[in-house]
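An example makes the point: we print one protein in full, the chain in one-letter code, the fold tokenised, without further comment:
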Amino acid sequence: QVQLVESGGGLVQPGGSLRLSCAASGSFIRIDVMGWYRQAPGKRRGLVATVTDDGNTNYADSVKGRFTISGDNVKNTVSLQMNSLKPEDTAVYYCNARGLDFRKIWADYWGQGTQVIVSS
């Protein structure tokens, strides 16, 4: 089992920056992908960015050039630096990890979410 604890988020003005962080703990063999998803009111949860344990990254088109994801596969942490924030970035941001437990089962794990509000 993987537990994910998020930090960061809050209220920021348009054009501002925020940094989200997430740390994984628990009983597992390894994590191969960590990332961030977001869900705005009335919308489905969608990809923001992911990073693999060998450093490959993937971004949603809407955040490319503004957000940067970084991961530490020794500490099992992931961070999301968000710059040039827009009101449409307002959402609850969820940390995600794909982990292998000691039953040798891969599963997706989720944090409880952190609110990001971009507003003047």
Summary: The mean pLDDT is 96.
